Structures are given as structure tokens and as C-alpha cells.
UniProtKB/TrEMBL annotation:
Pfam family, one: ABC_tran
Xref: PROSITE patterns: ABC_TRANSPORTER_1, ABC_TRANSPORTER_2
Protein known as: ATP-binding cassette domain-containing protein
GO molecular function terms listed in the Swiss-Prot or TrEMBL record: ATP binding
Region Disordered: start-end pairs: 296-315
Length: 315
């Protein structure tokens, strides 16, 4: 169990984390989602005692992390996969960690196998590891003490699609056995596939939180007319029926605030044949994430133009 209560962290007058309150429950994966610079890492750093809170509190397993007698036996932490000693091999890093926290060294081989680092890879120095291999080693280190809580900052960074699926299964399995998982990401897709609960942060403040199901429930409907030329007419029909069109386009379909049955009824009454009518699901959550964090987003990515395109690149 993780409890963050009215947590604020100020750096020289800048509120990196501003009155943040949420819990991460046992048996569930809690996704901590927000754009770059939103305050996710700072919250996690306070949680594991790496930086002090300005006010409020953050506890894990009912205690301040620094008060846990042997924290690695209760809490597995992966905040920065590149923070490992580059001159040691993966196996050496895990062996030293196992000795430090009082775990049998036999657990090292088990963890290496769990994270799919081969014996040859485990005997290579970490400086030669890819980012994905470092993440796997970091996960192995976090799990070494057989903890009940996992705190992971952007754990999917550098993993290939198979690695991301592996991570998802691992975290879901950990939660299914009663563990508490808190993982951060700035990528909605990563959080959406693995989390039971989602906490969205922007500009240091919580902008939405709830179960994934609750957050999806308000996501609306996606509707696409059978004939592209009917798109504008459909917009008018829906608007006349009091159903707000809040996004979408001719390819993805319109996203409408309302239930599919109401949207379908309005289209049917106006004789607009439909090609698609469905709950918005992931698309809706994406819109929600962008809307909720709109005022905290950096400017949208510039398009690649002739002046920004690398020389020699195709037009
Ligand atoms: N030690 C520090 N001193 C001053 N400002 C800091 C410090 N650490 C973080 N910040 C600022 O606090 C804000 C939140 O940073 P944080 O790293 O927590 O964001 P984040 O949500 O983890 O972002 P990302 O997804 O980019 O990792 C940023 O504006 C950052 O510049």
C-alpha cells in the first residue's frame, strides 16, 4: 500500500509537486500518468526518501520509506535504470545487492531468468548493456528482495514490443498475487494496457484519478458515417440532438459525448447510414488525457519542415 497525502515539493519557489493525494492499493496496478515535467519522478523520489517533502507525507507499507528496517525486502524500486555501476556485470550487481539485503545468492540466477537476461549477458559489464537490458536488470534488482510493493519510474523505456508485453504480464502477475504496483509513464498506451487505477498529473497537480473503467466510462462514443460526405451532416444532426462532438475526424470517426445508443438513434432518425458506432474506449482516454493536461503540455511538436529536416533526408 502506498499513501500520498497532500504532498508538496517546492524547488526554489517552483512547485514541482503541488498538494498531491492518492493511494496505490494492494492487488492493483496503479498507473501514474503525466506529460514530461509533470512531477511524476519527483513524487516517486519523495516516496522513496531520495528528496524531502516540503509539506504533506508519502508512506509505503504504512511507514516513511526511510524508517523501513530493510526497505528492499518490502519495496522494490526502479527509478533510473542507468544508475547502475557501469563497470560491474549484471550478475555482480545483483549478487552484491542480494548479500546487502540478506537474500540467498541463489535468488540472483532466478531473477536473471525471470527478466530473461541470459547467462552470457549477465556476465557482461553493464556499460555494454542496451537501455532495454538495463531496464530488465533494474527490474531484477527491484524484485530481488521479494517485496510486496513495486515503484517503477518509466519501466518500459527502451523495451521493444515483446519486452513491453513481458513487463505488462510481470506486473499484472505481481499484482494478482497481492502486490502493490505504482508505475509512471508519459505514454498513455503503456499505462492503459496494464493499470487498474490511473492517476493523471499535470503541472504538479492531480488532474484526474479513478479506476480505468471509471475513466473510460466517461469517454463517449466514436461514430463514423458510411459515406464520408455525410460527415458534416452527421455533426449537425448530433448537435441538434444535444450530443456534443468533442473531437475526431473523417478517418477515425467523430468522438461524441454520449452513449452509443443515443448517437445511433439520432443518426437513424436523420437517415444517416453509419459504418461504425462504438464506445470510445482507448481513443476516448487519449482525448481525455490530452484535454486534461492541455494547459500543462509543451507546445505541440513542430512539423518537420525543409529547414528542420536533416540534410539529405527525403522530402
Ligand atoms: N532537483 C530539482 N531542482 C529543480 N527543479 C527540479 C528538480 N527536480 C525536478 N525539478 C522540476 O520539477 C518538475 C517536475 O519534474 P519531474 O522530473 O518530477 O517530472 P516528470 O513528470 O517525472 O517528467 P518526465 O516524464 O519528463 O520524467 C520539472 O519542471 C523539473 O524541472
Amino acid at each position: 500500500m502506498i499513501t500520498i497525502d497532500s504532498l508538496t515539493r517546492v524547488y526554489g519557489g517552483f512547485r514541482a509537486v503541488d498538494d498531491v493525494t492518492f493511494t496505490a492499493e494492494p492487488g492493483r496496478v496503479t498507473g501514474f500518468l503525466g506529460p514530461n515535467g509533470a512531477g511524476k519522478s519527483t513524487t516517486m523520489r519523495v516516496l522513496v526518501g531520495l528528496t524531502p517533502a516540503t509539506s504533506g507525507s508519502a508512506t509505503v507499507c504504512g511507514a516513511d520509506f526511510r524508517d523501513l528496517p530493510n526497505p528492499a525486502r518490502q519495496v522494490g524500486v526502479l527509478l533510473d535504470a542507468s544508475a547502475q555501476h557501469a563497470g560491474r556485470t549484471g550478475r555482480e550487481i545483483l549478487t552484491i545487492a542480494a548479500q546487502t539485503i540478506g537474500m540467498p545468492t541463489s535468488r540472483v540466477a532466478q531473477m536473471l531468468e525471470l527478466v530473461s537476461l541470459t547467462p552470457t549477458e549477465a556476465d557482461r559489464r553493464v556499460r555494454g548493456y542496451s537501455l532495454g537490458m538495463r531496464q530488465r536488470l533494474g527490474i531484477a534488482a527491484a524484485l530481488l528482495g521479494d517485496p510486496e510493493v513495486l515503484i517503477l519510474d518509466e519501466p518500459a523505456n527502451g523495451l521493444d514490443p515483446a519486452g513491453i508485453r513481458w513487463m505488462r504480464d510481470l506486473l499484472r502477475g505481481f499484482a494478482a498475487e497481492g502486490g502493490t504496483v505504482l508505475l509512471s509513464s508519459h505514454l498513455l498506451g503503456e499505462i492503459e494496457v496494464v493499470a487498474d487505477d490511473i492517476v493523471v498529473i499535470g503541472h504538479g497537480r492531480i488532474v484526474a484519478q479513478g479506476t480505468k473503467t471509471e475513466l473510460l466510462a466517461g469517454a463517449g462514443t466514436v461514430v463514423l458515417p458510411a459515406a464520408p460526405t455525410d460527415l458534416d451532416r452527421l455533426r449537425r444532426v448530433l448537435s441538434d440532438a444535444g450530443l456534443a462532438v468533442v473531437g475526431g475526424d473523417a478517418d477515425a470517426g467523430l468522438r461524441v459525448e454520449g452513449e452509443p445508443a443515443d448517437v445511433g438513434r439520432a443518426a437513424h432518425a436523420a437517415d444517416v447510414p453509419l459504418a461504425r458506432l462504438a464506445p470510445a474506449d482507448g481513443a476516448g482516454l487519449e482525448d481525455m488525457f490530452l484535454q486534461l493536461t492541455a494547459d500543462t503540455q509543451r507546445e505541440s511538436a513542430p512539423t518537420l519542415t525543409a529547414t528542420t529536416r536533416p540534410q539529405g533526408a527525403a522530402a
